[in-house]
Amino acid sequence: MRKTIINKIICGFTFMMSIMMIIVCIPCFSVQAKEQNPLYSYVDSKTDLCGFVDKNGKVVIDPAYDTVCDFSDGLAAVQNSDGKWGFIDKTGKVVVPLVYRMCGDFSEGLASVETEDEKWGYVNTQGNIVIAPEYIGVSAYSEGLACVRTKSGKYGYIDKKTSYEKSTIN
């Protein structure tokens, strides 16, 4: 019983940290250290739209988004003027359509996405839904697992292939 309570506390903390990471992603200014040939976000002073420049300040992706996040797994989360989120690659090509209410960074090849009906799931770097949006809260993947919260309020872990019915949710 005590172990279950501790696991729920840890999972809840992980979930809250994931939400905080999404919020931290919101600003258009960023610094990247681990990406090879990094791109840096910037705001066009005339349009107030965000784009990306290389280390020399050359515009690589024209400013076309209200908000952009850092690149992870070669993709960056971007938000359009309609408030919809998706992902672009380093050429500016949309890889994951801008149809989501919110999204998290890629981790271990998957990123969390929130649908209009406020359910969370995961997409891969090709833009395919891998874990159907059925959760009311999710975290980033770490060591092959992600913490999720079901609509009934239960917390647990899922791997990259299973839904909560087959996971560790009690």
Please give the number of β-strands.
Answer: 14
Residue-averaged pLDDT, rounded?
Answer: 83
Strand percentage: 35-45%
Amino- and carboxy-terminal Cα gap? 11 Å
The biggest beta sheet reads:
4 strands, antiparallel
Helix share, percent: 10-25%
Plain-language structure description:
The chain is mostly beta strands. It has one helix and 14 strands, in the order H-E-E-E-E-E-E-E-E-E-E-E-E-E-E. The chain has one helix spanning about 1-25; strands at about 40-45, 50-55, 60-65, 65-70, 75-80, 85-90, 95-100, 100-105, 110-115, 120-125, 130-135, 135-140, 145-150, 155-160. The strands form four sheets. A four-stranded antiparallel β-sheet has the order 4-5-6-7, with no helix packed on it. The protein has a four-stranded antiparallel β-sheet with strand order 8-9-10-11, with helices on one face. The protein is elongated. Mean pLDDT is about 85; it is low at about 15-35 and about 165-170.
State the main characteristics.
170 residues, four-stranded antiparallel sheet, 1 helix, elongated
Give a short summary of the structure.
With 170 residues, the protein is mainly beta. The protein has one helix spanning 2-25, and strands spanning 40-43, 50-53, 59-65, 67-72, 75-79, 85-88, 94-100, 102-107, 110-114, 120-124, 129-135, 137-138, 146-149, 155-158.
